[in-house]
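Two records follow; treat each independently.
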Amino acid sequence: MRSRDIYFFVFVVLLTGIALSIIFAPGGRWLFDRDVAIRLGLDLRGGTQVLLRAAEPVERSVMQTAAGVIERRVNGLGVAESVVQLSGTDRVIVEIPGIANPEQAIETLRGTGKLEFIDTNGEFLTAGTIVRTTGSPNPVALLPTATAPLTGTEPTATQPISPTAATGPIYQSITDGKDLDLNAVQPPQISGQSISNQFAVSFAFTGESASRLEQFTAANIQRPMCIVLDNQVFSCPVIQAALIGGRGEITTSTRQDAEQIYTQLKYGALPVPLQVESSRTVSASLGQNSVDASIVAGIVGLTTVALFMILFYRLPGVLATLALLIYTAISFALYQLIPITLTLPGIAGFILSIGLAVDANVLIFARLKEELRKGKSLRAAIESGFDEAWPAIRDSSVATLITSTILFMFGNTFGVSLIKGFALTLGLGILLNLFTAVVVTRTFLHLVSPLPFAQNPWLYELKDAPGMRYARETA
């Protein structure tokens, strides 16, 4: 039994050391250059709010699908705790915290993500040209749009349709965007086919698109074939060899462009074209001063709880406080490692989980005192205390986990990511609470129980304990 306690103690020390190394990682980079910097949500950090509108009449179910695609794209941008929710029947509100390039993010969100290869009959088209294809004869880029700069102003005019582009030729599509194999779309890598530092996004088509692409490229060596993304010409490379199996890669000169293409392709095509109706920057509703005040309040609260536990439960309270500090370190390390973006609701969930962690220790120590009053030895009282308190701890934890799951599903269904953040931090805190209360605190009590000073009833807020008196007399 003693050796098992030592093994658990070593495990707890190692786990705490790993957690601290994540929290205090230099520059927010951990092992293998993993980004473990703390992420703040829109209410603490600010960001961009975009209102997207369907370019054509659609049903609400179609907009729900579009909202799901947009949320996956936002996550693909490396942004967590975003807010994506429907507004009315044809609009989607997107809030993105702390992005470095709002303009690029907006273009990534509104693009339909449709990749086509077109036959231009040997004609080279300039990159950026808006074209009509047999797969998309009415591109959203040719429709009236209403956009506002990132200043919070409302749009006042619409962009007119280009008569030339709207009545231009319709080019034959070699591929169908629906046949794009999403599993074959790979993150940007430095292209091995170029001596310059170009970045390539690998892709593959399936079905008839793969066959047509292979046959066309085999029959048109040394002729141009234009790559079109969302009806905009990306490039018109000269075919050097047949694309066997419909596989190839799109190369760009910058990683930023490559990442935008990858995100649009990888996370699905929108079922309906979307226009940017308005966009604005959102300043942090709390700001750094409020964040600092929240940290101070958290420290004060944690200190108050620790003093209460120590004064009321004495030695077990000291051990519980130490376990609570370990719980806090592991929690923050997981927030940075997963990662979980911290917002006010998320912080509230974490603070609530601390209270529940203290509640578990209170149940255990109350039972421990009762068992000592019955005359049991300290070791036996510890075991009985945990065994008797466990059903209450288990049932309350399961009830809270069920509540957290319901809240998470509610937030996920209705696009309220703030509720999801609260539910996630609360649920994770409950699981960690079970670990620290049952494993960490129990291990600490087992390790100190054989020590002579631990046989003093005063350390457990008792005037006398028959089992401890017998242990001292027979020692």
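The next record belongs to a different protein.
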Amino acid sequence: MLVAVVVFIAVFVLLAILLSIVGSGGSQAKKQVSARLDSVLLKAHKSDEEVSVRKQEVLSTIPLLNRLLASLEIAPKLRDLLAQANLNWTPGRLVLLSVLCWLVPAWLVYLKTGAGVISLIFGLFCATAPLGYVRLKRSKRFDDFEKGLPAALDLIVSALRSGHSLISALGLVAKEIPDPIGREFRICFDEQNYGLELRTAMENLAHRVPIQDVQMMITAILIQKETGGNLAEVLDRCSHIVRERFQLKREIRSKTAQGRLTGMVLSAMPVGLGFMLYLVKPDTMSLLWTRPLGLKMLYTGLGLMVVGGLIIRKIVRVKV
């Protein structure tokens, strides 16, 4: 009996010691956390700066250019253009590249010819190179989107007919279809999961990919959600129409290939021929920018080239 009492007392004392150690450690940790919170709150109370939970979008890493672009209405358009081209550029970088492509060629031409107006025009022509590259990437991405859209619609139709909901069908497209379709549908699917309404998510998709086929698909989905009906049948018809439109666009592109090639050749031939003649006879070619009559002829030729290029572009661009 005495041994049992001694063992009970020993176990009780040991447990009391362990609990006191654990309690002291927990209290010490609580004290440290409280001290940190007090220091943070004290700093926040002393600071006069307001904390913003809104997303701070950087238009340029240069503070002055960032403030300038933030005050202009063109910055959101440049941001959307870069996002549609899937380029990790900032609008400030695009602007700086355009300015650089304007200043350097204009300065080199001015050093060689001494004609300020010609240097300015040539610099402005070169300044459109970064924007042209962005638009080319954007156009190629949209073409890839149009090529893969019928397959994505067929996958949605198959998912709907097998019993899936529209949201799960969008998630299936995001997983199975490669970029750029998979990426855009993944963003739409994630917006749905984060609680955004279907209409808003679809409108965001139409804003990111502003092509007619996507707008037709989104219109069909939104109308079906409001009025009801067989969405699988509607999207099946949309897939058929998209395929027919894409085939018609390819036929028109093949028919107008000669006209587009003619426009490129007629636009590049005077510039290339003038450069080659300058290499052969620099004194003769320099009369175009050293004499008043030569400047008039040069300006007239440039104007006619621009007008002719615009006319050919208008002829070969057929909207479907």
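Discussion point: Confidence is low (pLDDT under 50) at residues 1-8, 10-26, 44-55. How would you locate this feature using only the token line?
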